[in-house]
Write a structure and sequence with these properties.
two-stranded antiparallel sheet, mainly alpha, globular
Length: 322
């Protein structure tokens, strides 16, 4: 059963991730979710869209069901959000580049992106890290928190299941061209509103660049193959004064992404600038959800008091007649 909206619980979950980091348990609940989804693929896989639809539906049901079992929106959001992990992974890449250890940076970048790092130079590693921070601000922070705020614990973990399925089977390859179609489309739908909320939050926390953010998300983002990643990357590029996009290699496949933003190419220090922007977005989101949750709580309390005044017989006490 889907619980009522719980923006305050989602806000606390975001703040818990920022303060505490990943849950100190092994295996991590999201990793365990991935294992179950992998087992489902082994059972359901056929090179047909219908099989992929069954996979996507079962994964969504699994995530929402797990959220129902967890019950508490705060705990579910805390588990589903990974802002602290994103910050740590990006920071590790930046430190390797500062030390001039490109090889170590290449070994670390797969924690952020699915690209082939073997031929990446320092500039490409910087761009990949900044683009990943932008995209994952949606997938790892804003989206699970928003779905938690809207639908409670089932929404937060349900989104995490959808996003995990997309990362596992939603990419283009001979194996997943048909089977992964439904998971990829479901992730696009689930991330559509959070991606645009992320762009709005970027503009809010960088008001001096708000016009540039609006222009980039309106004119540059539609050229990106992803309806959601392009919005986040364009917003970050404009807010940071950068230009993102270019050639990405995925094994034997090469994709040329359009330019996003009108600035310069990313450099090492821009990774930490992107992380600070992502942190500010997360804090603004938590603050907005907390304010909304407080208002919601006050409104319910006010309505309850009004009801008790208007219907004294509902309080279980007899009404005396004079």
């Amino acid at each position: 059963m889907v619980k009522h909206a719980d923006p305050l619980g989602a806000a606390v979950g975001v703040l818990l991730d920022r303060l505490v980091g990943e849950p100190p348990i092994s295996p991590h609940p999201v990793a365990l979710l991935g294992r179950v989804l992998g087992a489902a693929e082994r059972v359901l896989y056929r090179d047909r869209r219908a099989a992929g639809v069954a996979h996507a539906a079962s994964g969504l049901a699994l995530g929402a069901g797990a959220g129902t079992v967890v019950g508490a929106t705060t705990i579910a959001t805390y588990v589903a959000v990974a802002g602290r992990g994103l910050r740590d992974a990006a920071g590790a890449v930046e430190r390797a580049l500062v030390e001039g250890d490109v090889e170590r940076a290449r070994s670390l970048i797969p924690a952020l992106v699915g690209r082939d790092p073997s031929a990446m130079d320092a500039k490409e590693l910087c761009r990949a890290a900044v683009e990943s921070v932008a995209e994952n601000t949606v997938d790892a922070v804003v989206a699970p928190a928003l779905w938690g705020a809207l639908l409670g614990a089932p929404g937060a973990i349900g989104f995490r299941a959808v996003n995990t399925m997309d990362s596992m089977v939603g990419h283009r390859s001979p194996r997943y061209e048909r089977y992964g179609w439904a998971s990829a489309r479901l992730d696009d739908v689930a991330g559509w509103l959070p991606a645009r909320a992320t762009a709005a939050l970027v503009a809010a926390v960088r008001p001096a660049e708000a016009r540039a953010v609006w222009r980039a998300t309106r004119h540059d983002a539609p050229r990106h193959p992803s309806p959601n990643a392009g919005v986040a990357e364009a917003a970050f590029a404009a807010a940071l004064g950068l230009r993102l996009g270019g050639e990405n290699r995925y094994g034997e496949r090469v994709e040329v992404r359009p330019s996003l933003g009108d600035g310069r190419p990313p450099e090492r220090d821009d990774i930490s600038r992107a992380v600070r922007l992502a942190d500010d977005v997360g804090l603004a989101l938590a603050g907005g959800l907390a304010a909304l949750g407080t208002l919601q709580h006050w409104s319910r309390h006010h309505r309850s008091r009004q009801h008790r005044r208007s219907h004294p017989h509902d309080q279980g006490h007899p009404v005396r007649r004079r």
